[in-house]
Amino acid sequence: MSENYIPSERQDINNAVIPENAEFYEEMELLVHLAKDHPDDVELRLFAPVSDAEIDEFEKRTNIKLTDELRDLYKFTNGFYLNPSNLEISTLDQVEKMLDTEWEWGDTKNYLYLGDMIGDGEIVLLDLDTNKIITNDHGDEDEYDDITTLLGCTIADFLDGEVEDEELEKYLEEW
């Protein structure tokens, strides 16, 4: 981060209103619940949302069209951090600052950097050709249909058996 970086304003998870029509509603609602009820096991930092106009300006400046799901996510929270998993979806400003980054594993002209995961160099990308979410760990890629699927896999991989919670168990049974 640059010296001039100003962190986004945090959003209180107790007052967060997840849009009920958002694809990620069930996953984010579960994560908010777990962060509230199990703060020693689940940390969720949400940031102040951005407006449609701010997203439109981002798209105009970058000539990149976000998926409807990502638009909904940024209107709910301008990025977030989830631990366990160290999943961080960056703010739109951070995403824009990463546009010119060249990765050691090759050409990323068709990817949009969205954040990091696990803390060992694994990054989260939007494949601009397919609108799929990609995690890239130094060249090894995994593909997810969308952010919702990535969140679901993160819940299943990092929280199954780690937190005793009825809502989590119900989610995992249906997963």
TrEMBL record:
Residues 49-161 form the Knr4/Smi1-like domain. It holds the Pfam family SMI1_KNR4. SUPFAM superfamilies: SMI1/KNR4-like. InterPro entries: Knr4/Smi1-like_dom, Knr4/Smi1-like_sf. This is SMI1 / KNR4 family (SUKH-1).
